[in-house]
Amino acid sequence: MSSPIRTRDLEAVIDAVVESYDGPEEINNLESAALPNKRAVVQAYNHLKPVIYMGFYSQRSLTRGNLRYAVSEHLYPACEILVEQIARALRYEERSGQVKEPWPPGWSEEVVLRLLRRLPELRRILNADISAAFEGDPAAKSVEEIVFSYPVVEAITAHRIAHVLYSERVPIVPRIISEYATG
Question: What is the spatial distance between Cα 168 and Cα 166, in angstroms, rounded to a whole number?
């Protein structure tokens, strides 16, 4: 039977770890806490995917009557999360001196809205990507098989979304999305 860890021993370890942050190591950068949160960016992306492939991701029956509601269940949180995470990326760049002029007020909201407005176009492009994969694979039995089982669908979906944000000059967030899908 092992003995319980004593509070004073744990406190000594905590003190040692905190003290290690006084060193010259690059990972000691506490300002990086202001960066976008990777989990939050991935969560936003995971709300956009079902909007693109709603019939493949829905956990309930869908009809034209409830489709708008199902889409809104994902777009509202995706929008809120992306606005906050992009704003964090902008503030971090400004504080670290990586930009010459500050970003205009409301820019993160505008860029997210432009991304969301492009979702119908992205759906058409991704449909063409999936159709090409289906036509190019004689072993594939259906488009559904391609969407559900091809890792490249995840990667290309993420890269197409990330590319829109990258084209808008959004810092860091597009990289998080594309690396998530390929990692």
Answer: 5
Model confidence pLDDT, tens digit, residues 141-170: 999 999 988 889 999 999 999 999 999 999
Contacts 24+ apart (CB under 8 A), 128-137: 129/153, 129/156
Tell me which residue of 42, 56, 175 sits closest to 127, measured CA to CA.
Answer: 56
- Model pTM above 0.85: no
Q: Which of 19, 173, 169 is nearest to 107 (CA)?
A: 169
Q: How far apart are CA 137 and CA 145, in angstroms?
A: 11
Rounding to the nearest 10 degrees, give the CA dihedral for residues 29, 27, 42, 77: -20
pLDDT given for residue 3 in this prediction = 67
Q: Please, what sign has the CA dihedral across residues 172, 175, 177, 179? A: negative
Q: What is the DSSP string of 113-136?
A: HHHHHTHHHHHHHHHHHHHHHHHH
Round to the nearest angstrom and report the end-to-end CA distance of the chain: 40
d(CA 162, CA 49): 12
